[in-house]
Amino acid sequence: MAVTGFHHVAVAVEDLDGAVDAYTRLFGMTLEHRERVEDQGIEAASLTIGESRLELLASLGPDTYVGKFLAKRGPGMHHVAFEADDVAAELDRLAADGAPLIDEKPRAGLFGLEIAFLHPDATGGVLTELVGRG
Ligand code: CO
Predict the structure, then answer these.
(1) Cα–ligand 1 centroid distance for 120 (angstroms)
(2) How far is the CA of 66 from the centre of ligand 1 (A)?
(3) pLDDT band at 133 (very low <50, low <70, confident <90, very high)
(4) How many angstroms separate the alpha carbon of residue 131 from the centre of ligand 1?
(5) What architecture does CATH give domain 3-132?
(6) Helix (H, G, I), strand (E, B) or coil at 121
(7) Whether 61 contacts 41, CB under 8 Å
(8) CB atoms within 10 A of CB 22
């Protein structure tokens, strides 16, 4: 069990269509997935270039986690994500190592992937996500 690589950087945006257009046009990124998740209050897109991936997060309303983030901090960097071969096992290992977790157990994330978040206090103030290989 291990963290096996980098998975994505996520950016909170006000205008998802505009952001997808900007990253595809400016940098030649390819749209991989786009998904609206009503119960999380977000619409998200993932884009790839080479082996790298960017996640764009837009809010469906002010009382959602992305809506609150945008109101407080404005658009910009939201989290970084690492790939893990076993998210549950990595959470146990990180908790045993004293890392503060937001999610004690893996949960369903975007695009059908198993995910969990670490508290930003674990990582120099940057919200960090683990993503299963799915
Ligand atoms: Co993410």
Answers:
(1) 14
(2) 12
(3) confident
(4) 8
(5) Roll (3.10)
(6) helix
(7) yes
(8) 14
The domain spans of the chain are 3-132
* Interval between CA 110 and ligand 1 midpoint (Å): 7
* Residue 134 clears pLDDT 70, i.e. is over it: no
Token pair for 92: 């146990």
pLDDT in tens, 61-73: 999 999 999 999 9
Q: From ligand 1's centre to the CA of 105, what distance in Å?
A: 16
Ramachandran quadrant class, 131 (left: phi over 0; alpha: psi -120 to 50; beta: rest):
beta
On the CB side of 131, how many CA atoms lie within 13 Å of its CA?
A: 21
Q: How far does residue 8's CA lie from ligand 1's centre (Å)? A: 7
31 CB contacts (<8 Å, ≥6 apart)? 20, 24, 45, 46, 47
